[in-house]
Design goal:
Blueprint: H1 5-20, H2 24-49, H3 61-79, H4 86-109
Helix pairs in contact: 1-3, 2-3
Length: 110
């Protein structure tokens, strides 16, 4: 993962805290931003596949990738509202997912 993700998202979270505060409402808005960005990624995928016959093909794989980056950034910023150590929390979660995948893969091959 990018080495600048956490310092940059910390700066974004700090700026949002200063501009909007840290109330429960603001925390929920940051969480909802993740969902909003995920919806935009889904819409870009639909546009990429031409699923809407009225609109046709309107997006590219690069558009989907760009929207997925927005999801990652929004999630990283939101994570700052729920823990004081976002990098460690994500790292632990990532390693747990890898362990589950590894255990599942070994079980299937035995």
């Amino acid at each position: 993962m990018s080495t600048v993700l956490w310092p940059v998202t910390a700066r974004i979270a700090t700026a949002l805290n200063q501009a909007n505060g840290t109330t429960a409402h603001e925390t929920s808005m940051r969480l909802m931003k993740v969902t909003e960005e995920a919806g935009e990624a889904s819409a870009a995928y639909i546009g990429m596949t031409g699923q809407n016959p009225r609109k046709g093909t309107t997006h590219t794989p690069d558009d989907v990738a760009d929207e997925l980056c927005d999801v990652i950034i929004a999630a990283a910023v939101a994570l700052h509202s729920f823990t004081t150590r976002p990098p460690a929390v994500l790292d632990a979660k990532l390693h747990a997912a890898a362990r589950r995948l590894n255990a599942h893969t070994h079980t299937e091959s035995e």
